[in-house]
Design a protein that fits this description.
globular; three-stranded antiparallel beta sheet; two-stranded antiparallel ribbon
């Protein structure tokens, strides 16, 4: 089919007949992946950048509207936008607030059948810092709904694949900050049983790709501050017990799904770039602690078990070494397996390296048996890049500390964290590219 023939299908995307819309879209879908010869028809006429606001073309506007259509059509529309969202031209159009609000509201609704595809699209869009900033300040409109699994109904989620509850909730809608609700939805998605009948699931989607959204958001400083600022544990309430949002997702570093594990590991690593948060990151949850310059306190995050468990294997340590380890790593069973993905192992080692940027952090890591775990990891590691990072970490942990080094090192690291942008060279390391840890 030629480009001209494909263009002739575009007007049928808004045909009153749903079958016609679905057939037209199904014929266009195969031309959306990167490298397709006629992919340019979706970008013709798009403008972005400079002082001009992004402007939708007919095909882009139709695809956004079709995401609210019936199942087959909405499925293909979301897939098409996922394929096309790698273009900065289209990403600007897809990141406009009203469409983002629909995507977020749709993901939040537990009855949304295509929420996983919506999460994939949101993951792609948050590759832009501007989209992350929009999402950080976004609110969604909700109605209280006691019959719902989540106790609320997101107003903008209503669509052909996500009908409104019957009877429709009464009263006035409330505007709630979106990101804490997305974190709770992500936690609920982990409980989805793939073997269970979809109709019986309280939440239809597992939402693994939201972990990539969190990782993207935590790349920018404002995103890291969100995860490291105490908030009420229940996002629907303005009072109650406070906790750091990051604490809600830490447990998934050992989840069976690679996407979920990877996004959470990257979020944790990106948060470790915030040097002022290191004491809170390493403090036990029995200790209430604030992250300077803020004074609001919440339970410590105690991240070490969540970083070390994926790096730990079935090795046996002597009693003295066992006692240094966090309780979660003591006397692991012989069936314990390390993280199988080398990229994620490297991510966790880089997190430990970042936590070594202050003398206090290095002392804390030594006292917690980090050296014993990474020593065993190094003995079994087959990937050179991981081994090199482990060796750097061991150099930090085993070196002697100069009495006056601590204050100078902390100043150097804080200056580097402010000035280096997306990378941070550890104090005491070499200046070449291999010594730099990048935000991901």
């Amino acid at each position: 089919m030629s480009a001209e023939q494909l263009k002739e299908l575009v007007p049928f995307l808004r045909d009153p007949n749903p079958q016609v819309r679905q057939i037209a879209l199904s014929n266009l879908l195969g031309h959306t992946p990167k490298g397709s010869p006629h992919r340019d028809i979706f970008f013709a006429g798009l403008r972005a950048g400079g002082l001009q606001r992004p402007k939708d073309t007919d095909v882009v506007r139709d695809l956004k509207l079709l995401c609210r259509d019936q199942l087959a059509t909405a499925h293909d529309a979301l897939r098409a936008l996922i394929n096309l969202s790698d273009s900065s031209l289209l990403a600007a159009s897809l990141s406009e607030p009203s469409f983002l609000n629909f995507l977020v509201s749709y993901i939040l609704n537990p009855q949304s059948i295509l929420a996983d595809l919506a999460s994939m699209l949101l993951s792609n869009l948050t590759g832009s810092a501007a989209t992350c900033a929009t999402l950080l300040s976004m609110t969604v409109s909700i109605f209280p709904d006691p019959k719902s699994f989540t106790l609320y109904f997101p107003v903008q989620s209503r669509s052909g694949t996500c009908p409104a509850p019957v009877p429709y909730p009464s009263g006035e809608p409330r505007d709630i900050i979106a990101l804490p609700l997305l974190i709770d939805a992500f936690m609920q998605g982990a409980a989805v049983d793939d073997a269970q009948d979809k109709d019986k699931r309280p939440r239809k989607a597992d939402l693994h790709f939201l972990s990539s959204v969190f990782a993207n958001i935590s790349v920018i400083p404002a995103g890291r501050l969100f995860f490291l600022t105490p908030r009420p544990a229940d996002p629907l309430k303005t009072d109650g017990a406070l906790e750091y949002p990051l604490s809600k997702i830490l447990a998934f570093t050992e989840h069976k799904d690679t996407i979920r594990r990877g996004g959470v590991a990257s979020t944790l690593k990106n948060c470790a770039f915030h040097v002022q948060a290191h004491r809170a990151l390493l403090a036990p949850d029995s200790t209430r602690i604030a992250i300077p310059p803020a004074t609001l306190e919440a339970p410590g995050l105690d991240v070490l078990p969540y970083v070390l468990l994926p790096l730990a294997g079935p090795e046996e340590f002597d009693l003295e070494e066992q006692e240094r380890l966090p309780p979660a790593l003591q006397f692991l069973p012989p069936t314990k397996a390390r993280e199988p993905d080398a990229v994620l192992r490297r991510t966790h080692v880089e997190t430990l390296l970042l936590l070594c940027t202050t003398r206090w952090g290095r002392v804390r890591l030594r006292e917690s048996g980090v050296y014993e775990v990474v020593r065993a990891l190094h003995e079994s590691e087959r990937e050179d890049k991981v081994s090199e990072h482990v060796e750097r970490l061991v150099n930090f942990l085993k070196r002697e500390e100069a009495p006056e080094a601590d204050a100078d090192a902390e100043v150097l690291v804080e200056d580097a964290a402010r000035d280096s942008g997306p990378t941070l060279a550890l104090a005491g390391g070499s200046d070449d590219e291999d010594s730099r840890i990048e935000e991901i």
